[in-house]
Write a structure and sequence with these properties.
Length: about 180
């Protein structure tokens, strides 16, 4: 079977009927529940950088590949595209404040946050339920986001339940 992929310059699909309204698309997406993670990288000066993401997705088991999707307008995107290594820490249900800081604070996001440096450099958030250290293997510009792929080179897990985001708010696992 041949799998075709649209290149970055490919034209948009011709919709059948009316194009999808952006608000309707956002509303439909808000019905999904996802884990909340902090994607991290070292800046050019070796300083820790990170942002809250819900786009972290395992892609392949063999080899172990993951993806994260970062908005093209996010200044941190360049750090991820310039670094060989990045990490993803999946937040635990009590780490809502960390999620908010890494989504909203313009600077000083690591202030007051306990973290340690992974073997490959990028910071890992202490207390997260899982942490993945990744070597960047490629990127794919997709509309207003860039999908960054990585091969997982090291994982760490801990007790606890993951923090969730869905229906436009932070949630806890009820089951
Ligand atoms: C729950 C949640 C999930 C998010 N997921 C993503 C994501 O997958 N990709 C992304 O680029 N931004 C995501 N964001 C937004 C970024 O965290 C935010 O835009 C970024 O930290 C702003 O950084 P900047 O000020 O450096 O642009 C998410 C925010 C929240 C609260």
């Amino acid at each position: 079977m041949v799998v075709k992929s649209a290149g970055p310059d490919a034209g948009r699909a011709k919709p059948i009927g009316e194009p999808v309204n952006p608000d309707a698309f956002r509303d439909a997406c808000s019905r999904m529940a996802t884990s909340v993670s902090v994607a991290t990288v070292l800046g050019q000066g070796g300083e820790p950088q990170g942002l809250t993401i819900s786009s972290f997705t395992p892609v392949s088991l063999e080899p172990p590949l993951v993806l994260i999707s970062i908005g093209n307008e996010t200044p941190l995107l360049d750090y991820f595209l310039q670094s060989e290594w990045f990490a993803v820490s999946v937040l635990e249900e009590t780490q809502r404040g960390i999620a908010a800081s890494f989504a909203e604070k313009p600077e000083g996001r690591f202030d007051g946050v306990s973290w340690n440096q992974g073997v490959y450099g990028p910071p890992l958030i202490d207390g997260s339920v899982a942490a993945f250290e990744c070597r960047r293997t490629g990127e794919y510009r997709a509309g207003d986001h860039t999908v960054v792929f990585g091969e997982v080179v090291r994982v760490r897990v801990a007790e606890g339940k993951p923090l969730l985001y869905g229906a436009r708010g932070y949630r806890r696992l009820a089951l």
